[in-house]
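dumping these here so i dont lose them again. two proteins, back to back, each one seq then structure tokens. dont judge the mess
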Amino acid sequence: MQRSRFAILMGLALVIIVGMAWALSPVWAQEAAVGSEQPGPGVAGRVIDPLGEPVHDADVIAVGREGQPVAETTSQGDGSFLLDLPLQDYDTLVVEIERPHYVSREIPIDPAALAELNSAQAVRLPAIELERRITPGFWVATLSFVLVLLLIALEKLHKTTAALLGVALVLGASFVGGAINPDLFIFDFERALSYVDFDVIFLVMGMMIVIAVIEETGIFQWLAYQSYRLSRGRIWLLVTILMAITSVASALLDNVTTMLLMTPISIQIALTLGMNPLALLIPEILASNVGGISTLIGTPTNILIGSYAGLGFNDFLINLTPGVLASLLGLTIFIVLRYRKSYAAAGGQLSDAMRQRLKESGRITQPAKLRKAGVIFGFMLVLFVTGDAFHLVPAVTAILGAVAMLLWVSPNIEEMLHVVDWTTLVFFIALFMAVGALQEVGLIGIIATAIGNLVGGNLVATILVLVWSAALLSGVIDNIPFAATMLPVVAYLTRTVPGAESGVLWYALSVGAAMGGNSTLIGASPNLVTAGISERAGYRITYLDFLKVGFPATIVTVIIGTIWLLIRF
């Protein structure tokens, strides 16, 4: 057993090392390229797209007399390039730049610059902008992503299968179709992998292990029972307490895991009280999606936004928590009014036998393990809050916590790795690739330009458009792929809209996507997870049942969240 545990831990360490090596490889390559520079004639420059973003991996060729290439290179991650030219007299020189999905450009070097080159000096060109080109590959990438969204929204395929199908179509068009028609090429496999955000993958994986250990202690079942005790049989107060617990847990853990833990005990409490479990479950779902907005790790959409925008744990905590608390207050009032008849009709007092049964199922089963896990989780929270000061990314904190749980708390390691939701991790990887294809062919740029033209540089209008479009569209499609698609768009708007440098647009996307996930049953992952558990218990949450409560709740919370953003920023 010890040997097996050691082997698994070494394997996990190897995965971490490989991921770090992958992340650092572009830096090493760039350093190597810089170190190889030799004095002499050369042409330097930078390639950008219409949004001002760097264009990397563009082929840059210097062509001399009679169209003969004299040097060639590729642009780096920041769009820069350096052509090392051989020592000779140049009477003509043209720099040609080519890249799939862009219109090729030829930049002739003027006589003054040629004189400098002939004097063995380097010449730097102004930024070179490449125009986008709509190719058949553009339509393959776009239609593949639309197909993925439809399959997820209509629940025709599991979301992971749908995402993998989209990636398969894109890569198939690139490798098979590209051999027939070069314009069908989108990107190669290495380029597809470069779009995968491993910070997100390792953060999610680490938190899954941490929560799996905590779950075994029975702490959530204990909290649910204590909620009943505090309510003294008053159902409206019980629901308020359960929503508060769900909100806090969703902020500290994540909303999917929170609902996995809260759903079974909530069903049991509802049945013991003689009420429909949906009157507890739906309010908890809504509270989990709103409460998770407070922190970086609370919702999958925040994890995506934080990693892409470089926002830390404290950024979400400071800038969004007051608005989240106000939204939760409005949500709680709405829920109590919405279900007032159901709560009034439920019998709040239990017999001694039923109370004892509820107490037995709501006890802490492993107090020693809970103490150890609590110490580690508390240390993790400290690192999440203070990590920005010494550049400790949340993914590293999550992995450190996961390994500490495995070493000190000593659970069954095989079981812990089995509880990691590898399906979700694969979904994220496939989603990153699918969205990367949209970036590669230029659709993201088209969307960003259209929104920029719509808002006309007005910050308030941009906030309103982002929040409400995210809120409404997240109800049509899952908020995770929607948020992932919007990340480059928000990055462009943050650079171009006056006043957006405060980061407000990232928080607008967070509020809109997470709260908008409450509007329909398919809007967010916790909704579907809870619906699945509830249906297996014999209580089906239909699309219409959820819509009747979720959509007006979304309107209430998004209005409050929008007001807070306008006040805060």
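---- next one ----
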Amino acid sequence: MKQRKAERGTMLKVLRYIKPYTPLIVCTVLLSLVSVAGQLAVPYFVGKAIDLLIGKGEVDFGNLYKLFFVIGGCVAAAALAQYFQSLLNNRAAYHILADVRRDAFRKIERLPLKYIDSRAYGEISSVIISDAEQFADGLLLGFTQLFTGLFSILGVLVIMLVLRWEIALVVFFITPLSLFAAKFIASRSYSMFKKQSEVRAEQTAFIDEMIGNLKTVKAFTHEDENAEIFAEKNEEMRKASLRAVFFSSTTNPVTRFINSLVYAAVLLTGAIFVINTGGAFSVGNLTAFLSYSTQYTKPFNEISEVVAEFQNALACGARLFAMIEEEEEPSDKDNVSPANITGDVRLENVSFSYTKERKLIENLNVEAKAGQRVAIVGPTGCGKTTVINLLMRFYDVDGGSVSVDGNDIRELTRKSLRAHIGMVLQETWLKTATVRENLCMGRPDCTEEEMIAAAKAAHAHSFIERLPQGYDTPIGGEGSLSQGQKQLLCIARVMLLRPPMLILDEATSNIDTRTERIVQEAFAELMRGRTCFVVAHRLSTIQSADVILVMNAGNIVEQGTHKELMEKGGFYRELYEAQFG
């Protein structure tokens, strides 16, 4: 019952995506009617042609030639209708696929980071790419064969009842066995295809993780272990796929066996009528009837295949729609968008944890005046980066408040808040594009002079000039730039933005000591007059900060200037002496 309810819910969502393409579907239905009419007319005229072959020397060639032209016209009309039907089917199916993928991608951009952080990136990619492809294939097969099959069944049944209702009843009562068999198999294959889709996503996530971190894998000679893990996942995928495909594939042979019974029954009863009706039911009629019985049973095979494939499509569609219907970040609809932010930041009684079971930050209080340089230090896992996530509103606090210029940041639009904060992280990210497009990402309307000035300030201009096409050089992939060069581009990107607030999370960790000293000078110029939050492990880089916050286990245990904290002889001094002996 629960599975049927889930299938109905998924089907309703599919229909919502189909609705904008109703005109295409209507045209497909009309073309199906034309195609079926042309196909059903052929056996009737072939039967008439056979009856004109009365015996040796008694062939009515005049009418026979006319029938040949009529049959040729019916075949041509059916072929053209099928061609245009396939054309429209493809158009509808792939438009729907594009719509679903668009909504899924837009949803990712609106999902809270906790959703992305809690899942493997490869799994999310698998849903948007592989599951969407399977979903489209099921729709395409359904549009192509469903309407034609239904019209064929109804049309053939009417013609057979007109030609000889007694034989039509034989066909009518045996054929439903195919439907029962197809329904029995399809109802059990949905869960198998769903399992297959889930295992495929896990496998894709593992492959994505391994390819993305292949250097680490090779450095730790972990290839054999990974091969074993992949072999296990591959075997699980093989079993899930084999079970789903094998079980759904039994539909065809079962329905074909029942169709053979129908054909034999028609042949036997038809022959009896030919012998006993004295010509009222001719050999031509029997030939047409046999052809119609094949045409009547064939759609049952096709529809059973469609049902099996559609179960796979529904299973993949359910995963897609589950992502599309995930709860989004709270709306910014009525929030404030301040034109200017000076940079007074206050965290009051903030509590936050990524999971309810594990407390991280409790009753955190921080105050930073506009233009102050605030450094955050502490051991790994103490909550430094979490504070940054809260300031950027990547996550909302569980308790207390974070305010900028006296405004709770939950009352500001995310766009306006983040537009006033420049952030450079330890993990560099550059999109696959030119150097120019990466630098101007935050300010696409900047001038050439401003862009070059920012690159010079970040000491990136010299190596950019040495690239094959300078600022118009495409970059992307691991080998295009060194890690340090990528970091310099990220720094230049923020320098071009010149926001009132800065967040630097180990921003110079990938730069050599000489370049770091130069960039620190550039940062000093950039940070002048701006509120800055600097997360650092190397304590030598934050000694000039206006205030240093020392965190441990989610709490601020000490705060003050470098000199004050060293004189105090507490936890900060322990950290400092651990680094410098």
